[in-house]
Design brief:
By secondary structure, the protein is α/β, with parallel strands linked by helices. It has 2 domains: 12-51 and 122-244, Rossmann fold; 54-117. The chain is globular and about 50 Å long. The protein contains 9 helices and 7 strands, in the order ββαααααβαβαβαβαβ.
Length: 278
């Protein structure tokens, strides 16, 4: 958990000129009702959303699945991507139901991730987008099914100062556990959040839990998202996200009237508690 002081309600009027860059072809489908209200808290998936780690993860997964299950690498990669968004051990249960080798294969996969993914950094345009949204008063949270330690390492190396980092482990996972944690920590409701992710699973958990969702079409095509979620906005790159909140004239969109409570005291960066407290 990282700290930042108290702040006023989110407002795009605070975005400095040039902060919310327009990304050519960045928006594949806009919101059904013209614009999205600026969220109080933005929950960002990690792999495939904030960082371009999915090709590396798919490569590791294919290697493990070929070695353990003798699944051809090309097919293994397709199966991994088709079930992405879940913890890898859950993906294996989807692909190889009840196979006693699943736990060991998951350990192999998880043990290789740090060395091969730790150097992958957020693109400059993604960092700039987060900085712009933070300047507008939006709190930024990582919500990932990557392991807690990996998520904390990413947050520390990124040197961004996320308001909260949530990974998989200790009773936490993407979906209801993370949404409940964010709701308690920031004292907000589901409709005051916005979840951004790159997998169909991300959209499904947001839909199930009543949390607004924006799809980033990096792992799946815009058409796949549009077919599965007819009303969900879709962007091709994370940096296009601000375009959903600002109209062509750059005018301010509707903002919630009540500010969030202050963050906790400094010195708590990078933790992902099972029951966040203030």
């Amino acid at each position: 958990m990282s700290a930042s002081g108290s702040f006023a309600a989110p407002s795009l009027a605070k975005l400095s000129p040039g902060t919310a860059l327009r990304v050519p072809g960045g928006v594949a489908r806009r919101p059904a009702f013209a614009q999205l209200p600026l969220p109080r808290v933005l929950l960002c998936d990690l792999d495939g959303t904030l960082i371009d780690s999915m090709p590396t993860l798919a490569e590791i997964a294919a290697e493990v699945m070929e070695q353990v299950y003798e699944t051809p690498a090309i097919l293994a990669r397709e199966l991994y991507l088709a079930t992405c968004g879940l913890p890898f051990v859950s993906q294996l249960e989807e692909i190889y139901p009840g196979d006693p080798r699943n736990a060991g294969a998951s350990e192999m996969f998880e043990s290789q991730k740090p060395a091969r993914c730790s150097r992958i950094q957020m693109p400059v345009e993604t960092r700039r987008t987060l900085e712009g949204l933070r300047a507008a008063g939006v709190r930024i949270v990582v919500s990932s099914n990557n392991g807690v330690e990996n998520v904390d390492t990413f947050a520390r190396v990124s040197d961004f100062g996320f308001d909260l980092t949530l990974g998989f482990g200790g009773g936490l996972a993407k979906g209801r556990p993370h949404f409940d944690a964010v709701s308690r920590f920031f004292e907000i409701g589901r409709q005051e959040m916005l979840f951004v992710g790159d997998s169909l699973h991300d959209g499904e958990i947001a839909e199930r839990e009543g949390v607004p969702f924006v799809a980033v079409a990096t792992t799946f095509s815009p058409e796949r998202f549009m077919l599965r979620f007819p009303q969900v906005p879709v962007v091709r790159r994370f940096a296009a996200l601000p375009e959903l909140f600002v109209d062509l004239g750059g005018e301010r969109v509707g903002v919630p009237p009540r500010p969030l409570p202050a963050s906790p005291a400094p010195g708590s960066a990078g933790r992902s508690p099972a029951s966040p407290t203030r």
